[in-house]
Amino acid sequence: MQEFAEPTTILEPAPERVMVTPHLEYEFYEHIYIHNFIRTAVWAEKNGYDAIVIGCFYDPGLREARELVNIPVVGVCEASVHVASMLSAGKFSILVGREKWIPKMAANVRDYGFESRVASWRVLGLTVPDMRDREKTEAAILREARAAVEEDRAECVVLGCTGMAGQAKKAQEELGVPVLDPVLMGLKVAELRAMLWKRFGISHSKIGGYEAPPLEEMKPIYEKFYGSYP
Hints:
By secondary structure, the chain is an alpha/beta fold. It has two domains: 14-76 and 188-226, Rossmann fold; 77-183, Rossmann fold. The protein contains eight helices and six strands; from the N terminus they run αβαβαβαβαβαβαα. The strands form two sheets. It has a four-stranded parallel β-sheet, sandwiched between helices. Helix 5 (134-152) runs parallel beside helix 6 (168-175). The longest helix is centred in the N-terminal third of the chain and has 20 residues, at 27-46.
């Protein structure tokens, strides 16, 4: 994705292996990911990074990380639906791999305030490993995106898995509506939020839902699970 970043943006992967399961289609796998991701988020802030992007449409660990750090933490689902809402006067559709994903993702979209803007959730019938077959994935995206536009009256289509990264452009050209790559949306929103943070000190609110636990209470708990608090 470096080629799509602004000239002053440097993208780096997590310094340690956060993803230790083959994918995050199951709650148990997501739980393991969040445990690892929390340590990475705290490390990133202490080491001078400007923003963090979570590379899964479930946005795992988004709320937990925002409690613990001040730098922008961006979920690709939240970023994508915000952009989609600005690109459509009416509604947008979200394409997912399996029915299994919809309850959790729909709950997140509802929490983000966009439930009423979703025209439909369209299912490709593919697992995350299946999406390594780009030809099969491209065909499924075109099929369901076309149905979303023609049958559900969607004005914009969101690809609801980072396994579909790089597949938006062809569908957009064929259908004539915005088709959003979640990885690209996460990157661009992270760049915007990093600029707001560095230049103007604007990041997520630390009162209410993202209030941090008291340091004297949190630190020994953190160190019990992760070792020394940075």
